[in-house]
């Protein structure tokens, strides 16, 4: 009998950000599996505050890249470098998935106290992050590379206008067959990151 926990843990450990992809199309059934993994992410009260916008159109990917580069000229040096870095990753990706926050839980929370609204904001980002992690792990298990990008959020409005989206952009996930091995950062020791209370 297969120990599923070992299989999952191995995928978690070997996964790394891939920033260069082969010019090779991804079959629709594989994209659907990755989206399905995201759909089954955990969320508070089962509200599922995410929306996934799958972008395969090369011209649109190029235009998103152009918007990032244009924005990089208007902001400070650190963000400038990060935006150029993200633009290079996006330019090279066969598929992007823009993940949006529909703020469905926020709408519900507005009926209650201010503190509940603050909790709703955190809960929505947590749920979207969990959905993204599911997608990244399933992509890895299917032989695809991925890169979870937050820097494009400097261009939230510009990207959303291009995609005709009124929800709030939370992240962009790039997908493709790896053209590089990628590099896994070292993990901090357990003594620095774990506290047991018994």
Which quaternary structure do these chains form? single chain
Helix content: 40-55%
Shape: globular
Mean pLDDT value: 93
What Rg, in angstroms, do the CA atoms define? 18 Å
Largest sheet, order of strands side by side? Answer: 1-2-4-3
Number of separate structural domains: 1
For this structure, the CATH topology is NADH Oxidase
What's the name of the CATH homologous superfamily?
A: NADH Oxidase
Quick structural overview:
The chain is of the alpha+beta class and 198 residues long. 51% of the residues lie in helices and 14% in strands. The chain has a single domain, classed as 3-Layer(aba) Sandwich (NADH Oxidase).
Describe this structure in words.
This protein is α+β, with helices and mostly antiparallel strands. The chain has a single domain, classed as 3-Layer(aba) Sandwich (NADH Oxidase), CATH 3.40.109.10. Helices cover 51% and strands 14% of the residues. The protein is built from eight helices and four strands, in the order ααβααβααβαβα. Strands 1-2-4-3 form a four-stranded antiparallel β-sheet, with helices on both faces. Helix 3 runs antiparallel to helix 4 (77-92). The longest helix has 28 residues, at 114-141.
């Amino acid at each position: 009998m297969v120990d599923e926990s070992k299989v999952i843990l191995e995928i978690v450990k070997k996964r790394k950000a891939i920033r260069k992809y082969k010019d090779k199309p991804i079959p629709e059934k594989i994209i659907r599996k990755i989206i399905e993994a995201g759909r089954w992410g955990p969320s508070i009260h089962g509200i599922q505050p995410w929306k996934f916008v799958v972008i395969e159109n090369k011209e649109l990917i190029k235009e998103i890249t152009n918007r990032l580069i244009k924005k990089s000229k208007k902001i400070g040096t650190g963000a400038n470098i990060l935006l150029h870095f993200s633009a290079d990753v996006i330019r090279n990706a066969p598929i992007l998935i823009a993940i949006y926050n529909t703020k469905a839980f926020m709408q519900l929370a507005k009926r209650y106290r201010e503190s509940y609204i603050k909790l709703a904001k955190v809960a929505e980002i947590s749920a979207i992050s969990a959905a993204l992690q599911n997608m990244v792990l399933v992509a890895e298990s299917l032989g695809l590379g991925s890169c979870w990008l937050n820097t494009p959020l400097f261009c939230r409005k510009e990207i959303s206008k291009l995609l005709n989206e009124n929800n709030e952009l939370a992240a962009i996930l790039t997908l493709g067959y790896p053209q590089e091995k990628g590099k896994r950062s070292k993990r901090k020791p357990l003594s620095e990151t774990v506290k047991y209370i018994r």
